Amino acid sequence: MRSIVYYVREFLRPEWLKKFFFVKTAPLVTPPYFKGYPTLTGKDCTGCFTCMMICPAPDAIAVLRRKEQWEPEVYPGHCIRCGLCVEACPEGVLASGRVTDLARRDATAFWHSFHLEVDESLCMRCGNCCVSCPINRQIDPQLAGTGTSTSDEVIMRVSSGRVRILHEEKCTGCKTCETQCPSGAIRVARMVEGVQFLDGVES
Question: Into how many domains does the chain fold?
């Protein structure tokens, strides 16, 4: 009981109460390097979905079709303001703070690609990943009907009793193969690489 009285007296000291109720903090000033939420610049979006593919925050950005044109939609509740979508957009559709100015000055950019990996110990060789892949079906329209593909241009196909990755560079990162795999044997990983252009040459 004595200890409680001691703490109450400490908390109710006039100097402490004055500081607690009348303290003044410095005004909030947004620094010039601050990355705000991405905004539209007015340039035409081509619907390449690069911003969606590179975004590390689920459901933070979506590219929607509106009035016969594509337009990115940013959701502040999910966006972490990393600026990757701004730097990755090849058309300069998005802006955020000084991100684009600095990238243009330093001739830097972010490129992304996707890596496909099949766990042979889990794979059942059912071919669901190959058939469900929208790029595979676009390249080989007969794939959906036959379940197999003989084309060497598809991203992946079942060959010699296993799923073989042929053209990983064509993957758009939609993860349809991953979600349609009944055993969770295939994974799509996003790879992000920072590049700088010196005299127009990538380094």
Answer: 2
